[in-house]
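ingest -> validate -> predict -> emit
validate: passed (alphabet ok, no gaps, 326 aa)
predict: started
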Amino acid sequence: MKRAHFLKSLGGLSLFPWLPLEAKGQTPPPPSNCVLIPSETAGPFPLDLTENTFFFRQDIREDSVGVQLRQKIRIIGTNDCQPMANVRVNIWHCDADGKYSGYGAAEGMTFCRGYQITDENGECEFITIVPGWYPGRVTHVHFQVHVSTQYSVISQWSWPHDDVVNATNAYPDLYPQGPDPMSVDQDGIFADGYDLQMANLVWNEDAQEYQSEFEVTVEGGAVAGIGYEEMRTAEVMEIGEVYPNPSAGPVSLQVALKQAGQLEWEVWNAAGRRVASQALGSFGPVEQTISLDPAAWGCAAGAYVWQVRATTSSGQHVLWRHVTFR
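emit:
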């Protein structure tokens, strides 16, 4: 399978119901504020991240110079105020000099852009740098949450001004423009309020990096915003949840193929590399359980996307689930 097909397939969601964490024997995360985040402009310089094979990755720095930032994002749905697993989160921001990849002198470049899929706690994590700034804007990050092919939310976040200033002042050689001269109160984009658009920013001495957490509440819940692609896929195939998840050993996944066709699966790691695959064969309508032993495929501890593809007379249909190996 070409990687491009994997990337483009990530617009759809399964109609298979998502079990609450309590039903899986897991402890649910702490309650969120469950208040819908304000939408913001996608600009400047958005790109369709599905068009480039480098964007499905956890580390989005490439050769960008700046102090390392480990950014965790948690997605909550307004329908039930619970984490939204298996949704796609795109982020993009400028480099330490206030420049975006893909435009001007950086046309064709891809630094500081990428996406991940949320885990069972609605969380995903990126490794990047603390961004710089450019005139008229406070230091910020753009993001887009794809709930389905029909609905996504676009917004931005920032950090407490003093924390960003301290970060850049601590590394003057990495930030030649100096600290951000603006505060979030002076930024017109956040003029309608920013209480729900502020992440924390904390230095971790042991890891020698800044760490940040940001929680986002978007419209939706277990299943929301179903589009045409999801409806077509549901006529062909449904999948359940990975069990157990997280796991230190083998996991399984229920697959229901509703039309005659071929089934195969692939596993991709957080860096966007395919680490395992298997062609299951041709079947008539069938329900079966597929299994994955991380030790057999050399899967180290970490986050993965387990993708199932059905090829039938109506074309190719892809669904996936996030799985964490410990």
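The two ends are 27 Å apart (CA to CA).
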